Amino acid sequence: MQRMVATWGAQLRWAALLAQPQGPSLDQVLICGMGGSGISGDFAAALCSAPVRVHKGYGLPAWAANSGTAVLAVSYSGNTEETLSAVEAARAGGLRLAAVTSGGRLLEVARSEGWPLVEVPGGLQPRAALGYLLGGVISLLGGWGISSIGPNELNAAAALTDSLLDKASAARLDASRLAASLDGRMVGVYGSEGLVAPAAQRWKTQINENAKWPAWWALLPELDHNEVLSWSSLSHITRDKVGLVVLRDRDEGARVAARVRITAEVMDRDVNWVGEVWSQGELPLERIVSLAVMGDLVSLELARLAGVDPVPVEAIEELKQKLAEEPS
Fold first, then answer.
1. From CA 38, how far away is CA 75, in angstroms rounded?
2. Which of 35, 83, 213, 218 has an alpha carbon within 20 to 30 A of 316's alpha carbon?
């Protein structure tokens, strides 16, 4: 997994060379995908000013059926059950379709139907292919006039990623220190609405999959209306067994910054605030990718501390096998 994560920069540079498939200008897009594939849609939605929605489940949301929206299916394997279900629902509804995948059934259907398609390199775990998948999504959205991110932004993000992943980087040292503070604790990842939100979600899922470690994510200001109350009853447990990390960005706004400070003060007596991680870079793509890379590094360090191999996902494979044996 260390070797896979080290390809982040190369993946983004690969995406910078993609030719944008040209299509009609669209008003909105629905991105359908699950897990390490679907998170590319969340990143894209945060980066685009035009409406981009994300669906993670079977079929399509009720609003989409007769909306005329375009559906962009993202599945690294090309065989994700839920995503293929969404594709069939979109085909039945006569909706415009496009795909980002490395193979499987989705690649076969996209080729045969002549949909706009980005075929990404295979051979990785889906969660380690976010650069390819996000790059493919950005390319297709650009062809529809939904995204304005181009090669310059992708190459800048690649350069920043390489610097963060350098073996002697300060980022690696920071990730090791943060993981050491989280060792033995369930991890809560806090962010704020906007650019930081999908990065917080990505931290949670990477810690789950790479370290096989319990984690969750929540966003300000919403968590101040509920989760802020949740610690006092079990504070004798949460003080020692929970660690909170907050992700920050320079555009979070003064009121969110105030909430971070005050929320930490209010919660401090009942739960441990371990640290904060700020985005790096100038452009939005750089900043969101920098947070994702730091999450990857922390998750791998937690895996090392737990003594587990980050690559296998036995529980997910067992679940898929048992589902395959269930009658449709």
1. 7
2. 218
